[in-house]
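ligand=zinc ion
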Amino acid sequence: MTRWLLLLPALATLGCAAEQAPAAVDPEAPEEAPAPWTLVVADPVSETAVLEALEAWNAALGREAIVLGDPATPYGARRHVYVRLAEDGSLAKGVGGLASCDGPTEVCIVRLRADLLKSARVIAHELGHVLGGWGHTETAGTLMYWESWYPHGAVGITPEDVVHVLAAR
Ligand SMILES: [Zn+2]
């Protein structure tokens, strides 16, 4: 099953969409922290912004949930997330970023609009989807709200965002 979320911002600052093919979950399996995602940054995405975003999530979750990987890693490595500029036309009008994951193979792509390649907040929002928060929060101002009014502002992971991501696991 593939889930789609496509949301368009009312005031055209940041919209976000996400799609996911969820991995099979064994309800009898013991609860343990999943292995970290390895993140691969493609030019011209800002590595500084990416580092800020992943360090914010690691701090908020209290573990190494995402680590920076080798940019030469070929696409398709398991449990990798590739952050890259969206190709023309691959984002709906008004959407700032898109996270898409293949659950069974655990390969994700985060695509960013050209004017948001340095936005740690937008990157952190998309990584929140990769970490498991496939929906959006209902509270304006939280990172995982469907729309951010300050796409170039601080990452700003709130306790509600952490609950949102952890609850989806
Ligand atoms: Zn989103």
